[in-house]
Amino acid sequence: MGKTREMFDLQSLNTSPLTEKGLVDFPVQPDFQYSANSPSKEILAALKAVSDETRIRLLLILSIAPLNVQEVTEVLAMGQSRVSRHLKILADAGFLDFQREGSWVYYKVKDPTVENNFQIRIFNILMSHERDLPYSVRDIEKAKEILKQRDLKTTRYFDFVAKDWENLQQDVLDPLLYRKKILQLLPDSLCRTFDLGCGPGGLIPYLLTKSQEVIGIDSSESMIREASLTFLNNPKVNFIAADLEMLPRELAKSSDAVVASMVLHHISNPPKAMKEVHRVLKDGGTFLIVDLKKHNQEFMRDNFADLWLGFEPELLSDWLEDSGFIVESVQEIESQKYFKVLIIKAKKKGGL
């Protein structure tokens, strides 16, 4: 006998005498190939990931805001190893993004307004039945309580340091380094400008050179009191104590410019704050972000109540675009100490 053939010619099988005699009556598809990375594999992995009660609970709470593993364990009242295993399954299946902040890792659901893949469609279906999901009411309340405590810790810190904040900043980074740059990027002859996270008002004298009115907004009432005393006799300056992620409704479309100077790294949910800025800006209004570039200086958590260790410029730009802004410029300033400073100028769509 000749050498045994290692592969069949499937195409010839379709026209073989066996087929002609009716002994083979099924169609053969010689071009079919199964890949470990095929869409069907991805779909099966996604369906498997959401077939577990704990992972459904994770999707729900991580849709509220980014949480680190310790915070997730508090919400679900589960051990860290168990929580970490379920988080990995959801991340591997394409449901979650994660962000490393020094020694901490924060997880969140991929943005359903940006992504439109199979995983997000499944997620949206699940969230449309939020009330029927296991432990939904309890988990939502607990997650919001965690976020409230996170923000309260920041507010208490700033209440404590309100009188000395300007001096404390200079120990790490001289504000003059970026305040003059802010003036260069702001349009001239503004009617109203919001100073988001104004603190004791150190930036306000600069903003008054460009704007007829400045409104300082801060979540720390002690900071607002300090700033109010400084500008007590200035009718061009007013202050509002408010949650920066939930600004007063009456401020909608009332500002020509908003400046968020060294504030986003203190906010639990920066993208949510950006959406609020978009809401209070007039069409065509300017949004300036000044913040630290991504770093690994853990002492900033303890010494300055920083929640996020800076940001990559690409991440801030993505958040801005998702919130309805056009990013006009991204600049980076070198400092003499540990940090680099990012200044991003964005514009709300609309207007002239």
From TrEMBL:
GO MF annotation list: DNA-binding transcription factor activity; S-adenosylmethionine-dependent methyltransferase activity
Pfam families to which the protein is assigned, alphabetical: HTH_5, Methyltransf_11
SMART domains from the UniProt entry: HTH_ARSR (SM00418)
The organism's place on the tree of life at top rank: Bacteria
InterPro entries linked to this entry: ArsR-like_HTH, HTH_ArsR_DNA-bd_dom, Methyltransf_11, SAM-dependent_MTases_sf, WH-like_DNA-bd_sf, WH_DNA-bd_sf
Domain HTH arsR-type positions: 35-129
Protein's name according to its UniProt entry: Methionine biosynthesis protein MetW-like protein
Species of the source: Leptospira fainei serovar Hurstbridge str. BUT 6
